[in-house]
Request: fold
Amino acid sequence: MDDKNFELLRHDITIPLVVEVDSLFNLASPASPVHYQRDPVQTMKTNVLGAVNMLGLAKRLKVPIFQASTSEVYGDPQVHPQTEDYWGNVNPIGPRACYDEGKRAAETLFFDYNRQNGVPIRVARIFNTYGPRLAAGDGRVVSNFIVQALNGDDITIYGDGSQTRSFCYVSDLIDGFMAMMSSEESLVGPINLGNPKEFTILELATLILNKIDSKSQLVFKDLPQDDPKQRQPDISKAQEQFGWTPSVELDEGLDLTIDYFKNLLAK
Reply:
């Protein structure tokens, strides 16, 4: 923030933006169900109109643009692990559709701008990511479990906890962003970015409880509509095409994230 060359602009990307830059990273969208379902129309507009505006900017500037897509484009997958050539199993009218279909439509726009206008694109499909600086009320499973355990509250598990996720530490993900963006222009994606090690939600809850030594109890609630049963990325393309493999194990990443939330809640 103190760097003389750094400038922060607060802007809604559903409105066109005029800046002069060398490259663009489009990460603009609420990404947890709590947030993207709060205003589903705005979520869809951010993903679709926002993509149009950012792609228009990249076209004018003739610069590469990175799209933070998501594993949610696979919906509740019928292929496991998920590979980039899988088209997905998404409910287009469900409560998650504003995000799932918004991101799918954004991918369509990115590839059409690439084919029609020659815009250099990179499309990454991001799987569950965690780490310091998550908001305490973010609504994602790692932050939820850690904050609940630190506060001694019940740990809320939806369904029976057998659904799986793959958790990528934030620094690994950012390394993937940078490696993909600096790769040759022909590598447009989509590319899965995530940690391929798969854990059940119950395993995650148990691991966090053991690390925090919390008196919290596990409480099971109904599984939300369209909640995916399995999530595991096939990252062979990222490994082969730009040499990316995550290095931070869940055990280490959770320790760092728990320390962050301990300090945050202490304040």
Notes: The chain is about 40% helix and 15% strand. The chain has a mean pLDDT of 95. The first strand starts at residue 24 and ends at 26.
